[in-house]
Amino acid sequence: MTKKIEIYIPVYKAHVLCHSELLDSLGDFTKFILWSIGHKKTISQINQVVKLGDEIIKDEIKDLQRYGILDKNDYSHLTELGLEYFSLIECFENLKNNGIRCIIELFKGQVVPDKNIAFYDKSNLPENALVLEQRVSEIFMLNNNYENSFDVAKRELTQSGLLSSKYIDKIYTSMKIDKKENIYAKYIIYSYEGDMYAEHVDLHIGIPMGIYTYKKYYTCLDQYRTVLFTLKKLRDYDIQMLSEKALDIVDAYSEECNESKFIVHMDLYSKTPVSNADKIILRPKNAFDYVLPSEKIRISFENVKDMRFEEEAYNSLYAFGIANCSGDFEKTEESVNT
């Protein structure tokens, strides 16, 4: 199967803000001194900026030496601890106050980096669009390290080179919602097969499955349907009572009764047969975050000589998950700013 699914998810535009308990205890002046020394600035150069006098700067440097942040014998050298502080200060300085641009999808509450994601007003959604509802409570977004925000920060900071992986566990995150707009992002799944979660979002989507059970009937027997059972009973009682033609009819009826029932599996969303049903794991629909809409399909059988097929049973209680999927949020052509 190769299908395309477009789902519109309610979102907030937001930023992941990065903090560190190491830096929370430092004042802005202390952080500036440490940042300046990390950039090989002299006391005179630092004083040209803050204009507080060399002695005040020297006192601050002595405190940093006493805490093991600067080398006791040479204040211009950072200790290992000092390098950790400096790396965090440098990282947050490059991030500024904006943090990491992202979205919070409001169906499950996950944080996703905003790499030029396209947004839609509710009034601009296509007719009959697949639209997820908001399920998450905004109160939880106030928590530090909300949902997967720390993982987003960890990935973005290390991949961009802003912070070494050995310091990444020294940070924590908070969320800043830019504006609570009623907007949506389009998530596109380009193909699916089998059973797995969608990429880029932890969203378990169910494809509704229709299981049809069919019985084969021989059309040559249709004109005798009302007497077939009686003829079979007569043959079993006394075969001599039936003509040769009647015996042929009963033989055909017995063969029809022994025909195996067969099952057809249908993807009720795309309205197509599922050819590899034996390899698919079916689950109750409530096992999924979202099950795609469906309706019962009327199956027609063509070019079947001397036979017709009648539906004996229908089951639509189950769905199968998306796998081997290739999907992502729709992008715009704008440039990305952190």
What does this entry look like structurally?
It is a single chain. With 338 residues, the protein is of the alpha+beta class. Helices cover 26% and strands 28% of the residues. The protein contains eight helices and 13 strands. It has helices spanning 21-24, 28-38, 43-50, 54-66, 80-95, 149-160, 228-237, 244-257, and strands at 5-20, 100-105, 111-113, 119-121, 130-131, 171-189, 205-218, 262-267, 272-273, 282-284, 290-291, 307-321, 327-329. The strands form two sheets. Strands 1, 2, 3, 4, 5, 6 and 13 form a seven-stranded mixed β-sheet that branches. Strands 7, 8, 9, 10, 11 and 12 form a six-stranded mixed β-sheet that branches. β8 and β9 form a beta hairpin. α2 packs across α5 and α7 (228-237) packs across α8. The longest helix has 16 residues, at 80-95. The protein starts with a strand and ends in a 9-residue tail after the last strand.
Distance between the termini: 38 Å
Based on the structure, what is the oligomeric state of the protein chains? single chain
What is the strand tally? 13
Find the structural class using helix and strand composition. Answer: alpha+beta
Q: Segments where pLDDT lies below 50 for 5+ residues?
A: 194-198
Number of helices: 8
Shape: rod-shaped
| Main beta-sheet annotation | 7 strands, mixed
Beta-strand share of residues? 25-35%
Query: What would the average pLDDT be, to the nearest integer?
Result: 86
**Cα Rg:** 35 Å
Which sequence of SSEs, written as H and E, runs from N to C? EHHHHHEEEEHEEHHEEEEEE
- The percentage helix is 25-40%
